[in-house]
Amino acid sequence: MKYARNIKGVDPVAKRKIFSICMIGLMVLYLWGCSSLYRTQEDSTQEYSSEVEIEENLFPRKAIQIVVPYAPGGGTDSVARALADAAKKYFNKPVLVVNKTGEGGAIGMTEGVNAQADGYTVTMVTSELVTLPNLGLAPFTYSDFQPILQVNEDPAALTVRKDAPWNTVEDFVLYAKNNPDKIRIGNSGEGSIWHFAAADIGKSTKTKLKHVYFDGAAPAVVNLLGGYIDAVTVSPAEVLTHVKNGELKVLGILSAERISSLPQVPTFKEQGYDVAVSTWRGLGVPKNTPEQVVEILEAGFSKAAQDLDFIEIMNQLELGYKVAGRNEFLEIIENHHQAIKVLIEELGMEAANNDK
């Protein structure tokens, strides 16, 4: 009761001072609480933003698949598998190769175009990316793909069995002129670049050849070895092993200069025929693939293409090594597209939807 009496007896001025001090204290506590709440919300937002950024940078979170539009064992398949092996260390995820053959490469590239645009399906695109659409043999155009990287370029090589009666391009041409449509020449499919190579040989030499189509260069070479066809126009790498084994011989190279893997074989131009046809190979994804994913794919596969293991395998396989980034690769594709349109007109080949 004494304590109560002392409170009651406090001076009114002192009461006001005590009240003011209490109010100031309460306001300080309130402001501190608001500040803490704001900082908590801000920290939470920053943490969330970081999680989003981390999520985006997790690509790839699973295996990447490379679709090869041709049969196992051919040049395109060999390039894809060598690149996939090298790429595993740079993506830290499996890089798988799946062969989707048919219609000169149209089946596989169509699957690649229609794949989900998330970067997990990459297509090994080849010169057929421009030849097939120009002939109306594919439901896509080169503009449906976003190029990633070029990794290879090879000329065509006119190749026959070792026991064939021709040892030079001139021998071959003379026989073809005297026997129209009798020489069966195989390629990697109707509308394929190797089909164009054979057709260009016929045009330049004024001969008629019987074209035989296969789902890739490898089965064409197998049929040549078996005697079911008389010649093929495929890349040197796709016949080199059989040339070294004495089973096949190359009559001429369809390039501006001789190649290092077959230095003894003259070019068509050296033998009097102005014919030069080459293929290129590289990677592409559906055109709507996010830019950040495209950049990651280009960076990873560029490192793989410059990896010493990849270069060594390319040299062992005698495949032409040429690396170009996505912008340069796109320019190469566009220029080839225009050149093929002109060649189709010159060859008199039927071309539906040639204005693509």
Mean pLDDT: 86
Number of strands: 10
Domain count: 3
What is the straight-line distance between the termini?
A: 103 Å
CATH topology of the largest domain: D-Maltodextrin-Binding Protein, domain 2
Name the CATH class of the largest domain: Alpha Beta
Just name the CATH architecture of the largest domain: 3-Layer(aba) Sandwich
Catalogue the unreliable spans.
1-10, 34-55, 352-356
Task: Give a short account of the largest sheet.
Answer: 10 strands, mixed
CATH H-level superfamily of the largest domain: Bordetella uptake gene, domain 1
List keywords for this structure.
alpha/beta; 10-stranded mixed β-sheet; 356 residues; 10 strands; 12 helices; D-Maltodextrin-Binding Protein, domain 2
Structure description:
The structure is a single chain. This protein has 356 residues and is an alpha/beta fold. It has 3 domains: 1-35; 64-151 and 281-347, Bordetella uptake gene, domain 1 (D-Maltodextrin-Binding Protein, domain 2, 3-Layer(aba) Sandwich), CATH 3.40.190.150; 155-254, D-Maltodextrin-Binding Protein, domain 2. 47% of the residues lie in helices and 19% in strands. The chain has helices at residues 2-8, 12-56, 75-91, 106-114, 128-134, 169-178, 193-205, 217-225, 240-244, 291-305, 308-316, 326-347, and strands at residues 64-68, 95-99, 121-126, 145-161, 184-187, 210-213, 231-234, 248-254, 278-286, 321-325. Strands 1, 2, 3, 4, 5, 6, 7, 8, 9 and 10 form a 10-stranded mixed β-sheet that branches. Residues 1-10, 34-55 and 352-356 have low confidence and may be disordered. InterPro entries: BUG, Bug_dom1. It holds the Pfam family TctC. The chain crosses the membrane at residues 21-38.
